[in-house]
Amino acid sequence: RWWAPHTGRIPGSNMPLPIQCPLDHVFNIEQGLRPDLIRAFSFLRHPRVPQTVLASQHNLTLPADLSAPTVTAALKDPAAVHAKVLRIADTPPDVYQRTLTAEQQNAFAKRAFNYLGIWCCIRPPARGKPGHIWYDLFWDIIPHTDRWRQTWSDAWVPRPSK
C-alpha cells in the first residue's frame, strides 16, 4: 500500500493500470471473510494444485428464469454438487435482488458493510484533510446508505472520508 497522495500511480513509477492488486488491499479479510475459502486469482494456474482439482471443474449457466428456486435447482445438479471448482458464467448484475428475499439481502448487507477497506487514491481536498476514500460494496445500488450512514441517491463518486 502507498500511504501518500497520488493520482492512481505511485509517484515515479511507470506501473501500468489497472493493476491486479492483492485482496487485502481492498478487502478487510479479518472483518468476517473466511480466509480458508479465499484463493488468489491465479490459484488454478499454480503448479502444486492437485490434478484432481483441475479435473473436477463444472461450468454452470444460470437459468433464464432466474429466481431462488431455479438457482437452487441448478446448484443441486449432480455435476455442480460434485465439482471441486464451480464456475458460474454470465452472472446478471441483478442476481442478488432476484434470488434473495429482502430479509436475506438485508442480512448480507449488514454483514458486508465492513468487508471493504480503505484505499488511498485521491488527493486531499485541503491540507490536513484525509486523502483516502472508503470503498463501498453497494456503490451500484441506488439509493442506499453506506456504513458511515451517508445516503447515496445518485452515482457513486470518490468522496474523502470525514
Write the layout of secondary structure elements.
Layout lengths: L50 H4 L2 E5 L6 H8 L2 H5 L2 E5 L5 H5 L2 H11 L5 E2 L13 E2 L9 E2 L5 E2 L10
Parallel strand pairs: 1-2
Antiparallel strand pairs: 3-4, 5-6
Task: Give a quick set of tags describing it.
single chain, 162 residues, alpha+beta, two-stranded parallel ribbon, two-stranded antiparallel sheet, 6 strands, 11% strand, globular
Task: Describe the structure in brief.
This protein has five helices and six strands. The chain has 162 residues and is of the alpha+beta class.
Explain the overall architecture.
The chain is 20% helix and 11% strand. The protein is α+β, with helices and mostly antiparallel strands and 162 residues long. A hairpin with a 5-residue loop joins strand 5 and strand 6. It is globular and about 60 Å long.
Largest beta-sheet characterization: 2 strands, parallel
Beta-strand segment tally: 6
Percent in helix? 10-25%
Shape: globular
Strand content: 5-15%
- Main sheet: strand order: 1-2
The N- and C-terminal alpha carbons lie at a distance of: 21 Å
Encode the helix/strand succession as letters. HEHHEHHEEEE
Structural class: alpha+beta
* Uncertain residue ranges: none
User: Radius of gyration, Cα only, in angstroms?
Assistant: 20 Å
pLDDT average, as an integer?
A: 81
Query: How many H/I helices?
Result: 5
